Write the structure tokens for this entry.
Amino acid sequence: MLPTHRLIKTYKGSEIYLRNPGFEFTPMSMRKIASFICSTLEDQRAVVAFSYSMLDFMNVEELPDVALLEEATGVIQNLIDEGAIEDRQEYTYELRGAEFQPVRNPKWWVKV
């Protein structure tokens, strides 16, 4: 695996790697973004990225990054359960309300 990523979970034989350090601040969009690589039993690899607006958390003392990383991992596990991981694909999600929703071609994500 890439040296920038660390294995955080093995789920049903698939490996989920988080890009260090997790959610990162992007000043141009006032967002935090975290990206993962999922490697399945079938040797398929996909990128799954998550974003949230910092404006949604202006009145809190601490940003909920740890909880949101856990929620993001759950979304990836659901993709694995559904057999939805396709080789060399990118899946992007934004926090909307209380959960991550899939989005297509968001401005904050540069396709690989």
User: Anything to note?
Assistant: The longest helix spans residues 65-82.
